[in-house]
Design goal:
This protein has helices spanning 2-15, 48-52, and strands at 28-37, 42-47, 55-58, 64-66, 70-80, 91-97, 103-109, 117-121, 132-133, 140-146, 151-160, 182-184. With 203 residues, it is mainly beta. A hairpin with a 5-residue loop joins strand 3 (55-58) and strand 4.
């Protein structure tokens, strides 16, 4: 009987314990795949600035502010469609850059005219695996090659920091609509060969 009473008392004490609140992330983190399609034969370099400029909100007909203040690259995927009018197979490649200027390249060639070339790659070990933001010592991130119609998926986690002063978008590429509209930008910046497959693409 005494053992039973002690057991009940221990259970009651456990029920009265108030848990401490868990750790809280004040920034907004978004896990997102952005998709782009080449409008011409492709040999496009993407920079830190290009990714930071991917999402921006227009403040006027000529300016806007970035939504992304930092990002982490998870992986890249590339599909290169074969040309049915040609016997030449399609090819696709991803080339990663580092602060030392060295790079790693991954490539593929289509088998016949029915299947696209496909490449999937994660960033190499080093700076490209960490958070990248304004002021990063990195310049170029990666280079993608493929024919017109190539699909590129960029999978990143991006951060929006609350109460951080706004940063003006570097390459707005022309703003087609008015203030308050949020745009998806080109993956290759002002070269404009990799527009996103979403609405509100800058002209």
């Amino acid at each position: 009987m005494n053992k039973l009473k002690r057991s009940k008392r221990r259970g009651q004490r456990g029920q009265n314990v108030i848990p401490h609140p868990p750790s809280y992330e004040s920034s907004v983190l978004v896990d997102k795949v952005f998709r782009f399609q080449a409008n011409a034969s492709l040999s496009a370099t993407t920079t830190v600035t290009n990714v930071l400029d991917l999402l921006y909100t227009a403040t006027s007909s000529t300016a806007g502010y970035r939504v992304i203040d930092a990002f982490k690259i998870k992986k890249l995927r590339v599909w290169a469609p074969p040309n049915p009018a040609s016997s030449t197979p399609a090819s696709a490649s991803i080339q990663w850059y580092t602060t030392s200027g060295s790079f790693r390249q991954v490539a593929d060639v289509s088998m016949g005219q029915s299947e696209p070339a496909f490449v999937e790659s994660r960033p190499p070990m080093g700076d490209l695996r960490f958070w990248i933001g304004t002021g990063s010592s990195l310049g170029n991130l990666f280079l993608v090659t493929g024919p017109a119609g190539t699909i590129v998926d960029l999978h990143i986690i991006y951060r929006i920091t609350i109460n951080l002063p706004g940063v003006v978008v570097t390459n707005s590429n022309g703003i087609a609509l008015g203030a308050g509209t949020t745009y998806l930008n080109y993956l290759d910046g002002t070269t404009k060969k990799l527009p996103p497959l979403d609405a509100n693409v800058p002209t």
